[in-house]
UniProtKB/TrEMBL annotation:
InterPro entries: Homeodomain-like_sf, HTH-type_TetR-like_transc_reg, Tet_transcr_reg_TetR-rel_C_sf. The keyword Ribosomal protein does not apply. Keywords: DNA-binding, Transcription, Transcription regulation. The lineage of its organism: Bacteria, Bacillati, Actinomycetota, Actinomycetes, Micromonosporales. One of its GO terms (molecular function) is transcription cis-regulatory region binding. The keyword Phosphoprotein does not apply. It comes from Virgisporangium aurantiacum. This is TetR family transcriptional regulator. Signal peptide: none annotated. Gene3D superfamilies: Homeodomain-like, Tetracycline Repressor, domain 2.
Length: 192
């Protein structure tokens, strides 16, 4: 039982840190700020990770891991190849809904966190490529070069994370992902 309580406490702290970081970023906080905001001790935070940088990395990894699980669970609910692509892209946008521009900016400036984001972007691009390939094979999508679509998606995802698209369009990350989904789905739809 004590292990279960510790695991629940750890999960709760990570979830609270995640909500804080996604809403406000993480660079401006020091450990003292975090203990004040979370109403916990330094010892409690240091039980999660030995430094602020490691704490941020723990939270970033947990966020992307949970987001990937939620996205894939939604994709698994449909069997239609075109719908799988649509669900995947919409689920990515939904998972990014709570992410602030401050979080993305801090992530871009924090090399270990940026590495996690880039790894997830590569995975997402490969996943889109696979879904496009499956959709083309099933005749649900028009024939296209799936690796190109995956590479293009990766480029746009990177521009969203770096804040370039928001600077150019004013769109927040989730809205930009939804527009990317519309662009891809409409461009891949078979003419009827």
């Amino acid at each position: 039982m004590p292990t279960t309580r510790l695991s629940a406490r750890r999960a709760d702290l990570i979830a609270r840190l995640q909500a804080l970081f996604l809403a406000e970023g993480f660079a401006a906080f020091n450990i003292g700020d975090l203990t004040d905001r979370l109403r916990c001790s330094r010892t409690t935070l240091y039980a999660l990770a030995p430094s602020k940088e490691q704490l941020v990395l723990t939270v970033v990894r947990a966020y992307f891991r949970a987001a990937a699980e939620h996205i894939e669970a939604r994709v698994a609910e449909t069997g239609d190849p075109r719908e799988k692509l649509a669900v995947y892209l919409e689920a990515v946008a939904s998972e990014l809904q709570p992410v602030s521009a401050e979080f993305f900016a801090d992530l871009a400036d924090f090399s270990p966190g940026n590495d996690v984001y880039q790894e997830n972007t590569r995975y997402a691009a490969h996943r889109v490529q696979t879904l496009v390939t499956d959709g083309v094979k099933a005749g649900a999508l028009r024939p296209v070069d799936a690796p190109f679509v995956g590479a293009a998606v990766a480029q746009v995802m990177g521009a969203i994370q770096r804040g370039e698209l928001q600077a150019q369009t004013g769109l927040d990350a989730a809205t930009a992902y939804r527009n990317l989904a519309d662009l891809i789905l409409n461009s891949l739809s078979r003419s009827t």
